[in-house]
Design a protein that fits this description.
- This protein has helices at residues 4-20, 33-38, 43-51, 57-75, 83-98, 147-154, 197-204, 221-226, 261-271, 309-313, 328-337, 344-359, 373-379, 388-399, 407-414, 420-423, 427-430, 448-470, 504-509, 538-551, and strands at residues 78-81, 112-116, 158-163, 210-214, 230-233, 254-258, 304-307, 363-366, 431-432, 435-436, 474-478, 513-520, 526-532, 572-573.
- The chain is α/β, with parallel strands linked by helices.
- The strands form 2 sheets. The chain has a 12-stranded mixed beta sheet with strand order 8-7-11-13-12-5-6-4-2-3-1-14, with helices on both faces. A two-stranded antiparallel ribbon has the order 9-10.
- β2, α6 and β3 (158-163) form a beta-alpha-beta unit.
- α4 runs antiparallel to α5.
- The longest helix has 23 residues, at 448-470.
Length: 575
């Protein structure tokens, strides 16, 4: 969230840009063989280029670093560029390749990736977009890699940079106090969505082949929708979130962002697995496997999907939920404030996608009884805000720097508190009619059953019962309620904090969801379609996404500009 003074400065800058006009046209760049081969390259295609000895890993990494040099100053996707370590890792892989032993190559061997700035990378500052983690002498320098970073490295991936993000992921757009604003790759004036908007801009702009996003309320899926990418929210427990600075750890998740479903599936298979640092992963069935097997042959014929009525109606689910102690009449007012209308142009694009599903052989069921507005009412009672500090302390205990391993230690050492959402002191969340939420630990809270566990179980049971009753393979709905806004001018009298979605309910029950490209708004910006399914059916859900991808027109890469009117802070270069 922007402070009021920062919002005014951003608004003033945006208005100044608006008076100057649109961004200049792209400067023609000579197309060479590498541009033809590597632009929008997929993981399988890149591995084949390596196998054919068309490119070394160093050449591929350098091509992506050159893209960063050329475009990051306009789009602001990367807060930190890991140039030296990326080239060193590339040289190491090239040396391995020279031995001729391909048996040890992982599934992401030599694939340039970006990591979101809230995800620990050993020796680097985990800024999480917040200036408080970059204060001189008090930086949050990661003592070790997050679990998913360890797995991505082991698979051969090469990290070229750390992606910008809004402060502690607490926004639906991408402006941070530690770095600044990120623009949409399809039009830099527009929002890429948040909080993984910088990852999607980096991947859409070919600064990397793929990246990891994090998602507390929509933050993988909504940004992917704005930029014609694939965003995967795995069943919570498939992938460890250990080492990721939390927003709301009971809602947080992480997953891949890629340009194709196959690339996303390859990355998810690497990221998945049990982890002693994340107890939720222990609930994953031992039989669970995420692979690319069968994706190419996947079909929508005979599939059956339901459209959640509450999303079409724009029924809101308040972020972090409403505690049980809030009277129902007051809760109704809080829910009404969270309502979010489905805009007409988005509705039209969604209904066009429904027709495409039907043309491909799927059945789509629409009706007021399919996850009706009462489902949103039920979801609103899953209350998590009382445990914000608990999640932060869990993260800092293992992934904090030597100087502090809890929120209390941070304040003692730095002389200022952690970011407000990290410690649960935002008045509009903790003070509600009849209730004042004080921070506590989940495991020792006597109110946890009625405030969190019981409503969550009821919500999940209703979700699964609807799938069973209607014999559905999953649900389908718009990934965003509105088009990405133009951030070069105020929207509704203020600097935009959107676009927004109505998909935070997925986080509350932790079921799998995936976003795919499904067309464009009139101004050319992309629209995304979201599918969700039963817990632990991630592989089947990726098959549905792959079938959609094969049955519909492919995304068109963005046309980037090399000069813009919005100023961007120069990315730091890490050693």
């Amino acid at each position: 969230m922007l402070t009021s003074s920062r919002a005014l400065r951003s608004c003033a800058a945006a208005l100044a840009v608006a008076t100057l006009g649109c961004a200049p046209p792209a400067v023609p760049v000579a197309v060479n063989a590498a541009d033809r081969d590597l632009l929008d390259v997929t993981v399988p295609a890149l591995e084949q280029l390596y196998a054919d000895k068309r490119y070394t890993v160093t050449q591929v990494v350098q091509w992506h670093l050159d893209r960063i040099d050329r475009y990051n100053g306009v789009y602001g996707a990367l807060e930190t560029v890991l140039r030296e370590s990326a080239l060193a890792d590339a040289a190491r892989l090239d040396a391995e390749a020279a031995t001729g032993d391909r048996a040890t190559r992982g599934p992401l061997w030599g694939v340039p990736i970006v990591i979101k700035a809230n995800t620990s990378v050993q020796g680097q500052i985990t800024t999480a977009g917040w200036e408080g983690f970059t204060r001189a002498g008090h930086e949050l320098i990661a003592p070790k890699d997050a679990t998913i970073v360890t797995r991505l490295r082991a698979a051969g991936a090469i990290i070229v940079g750390l992606a910008n993000m809004p402060d502690l992921a607490n926004s639906d757009t991408n402006r941070s106090s530690s770095f600044g604003r990120t623009g949409n790759a399809y039009d830099v004036r527009f929002s890429p969505g948040g909080s993984s908007g910088s990852v999607v801009t980096a991947v859409a702009a070919n600064m990397a082949v793929l990246g990891n996003g994090t998602d507390t309320g929509n933050s993988i899926r909504m940004p992917a929708a704005t930029s014609a990418l694939v965003g995967v929210f795995p069943t919570r427990g498939v992938v460890s979130i250990a080492g990721i600075a939390p927003l709301d750890w009971l809602l947080d998740n992480t997953g891949p962002i890629a340009r194709t479903v196959t690339d996303a599936a390859i990355a998810l298979a690497v990221m998945a697995g049990k982890d002693s640092l994340d107890p939720t992963t222990r609930s994953a069935p031992d039989s669970l496997r995420v692979t690319t097997e069968g994706l190419a042959a996947a079909s929508l014929k005979g599939k059956r999907f339901g459209v959640p009525a509450f999303i079409m109606a724009g029924s809101g689910i308040p972020f972090h939920g409403i505690p049980a102690g809030v009277p129902e009449r007051a809760a109704d007012s809080i829910r009404a404030a969270a309502n979010m209308a489905l805009r007409d142009d988005t509705r039209a694009l969604f209904m066009k996608a429904v027709e495409s599903l039907r043309t491909a052989g799927a059945e789509v069921v629409i009706g007021d009884g399919i996850l009706p507005t009462t489902f949103a009412t039920m979801a609103s009672r899953v209350s998590t805000y009382a445990y914000m500090r608990d999640g932060t302390d869990r993260f800092l205990a293992t992934f904090g720097p030597a100087a502090y391993h809890s929120a209390a230690q941070y304040e003692q050492v730095v002389g200022a508190p952690l970011y407000v959402s990290s410690i649960g002191v935002e008045e509009h969340f903790r003070v509600m009619p009849g209730v004042r939420l004080e921070q506590r630990t989940l495991e020792r809270d006597a109110e946890a059953e009625r405030n969190y566990h019981a409503p969550r179980r009821a919500m999940l049971a209703e979700y699964v019962a609807t799938l069973d009753r209607l014999k559905l393979d999953g649900f389908v709905y718009p990934a965003i309620q509105m088009a990405p806004p133009d951030e070069s001018m105020p929207q509704d009298g203020r600097v935009s904090e959107g676009p927004h979605s109505a998909t935070s309910w997925v986080n509350m029950i932790g079921v799998p969801a995936v976003v795919v490209y499904a067309g464009n708004y009139a101004n050319g910006l992309p629209f995304g379609l979201e599918f969700s399914a039963r817990p632990w059916t991630d592989r089947a859900l990726l098959g549905i996404a792959s079938a959609w991808e094969q049955a519909t027109p492919k995304r068109t890469p963005p046309k980037l500009v090399e000069a813009g009117l919005l100023s961007v802070v120069k990315a730091r270069t890490a050693k």
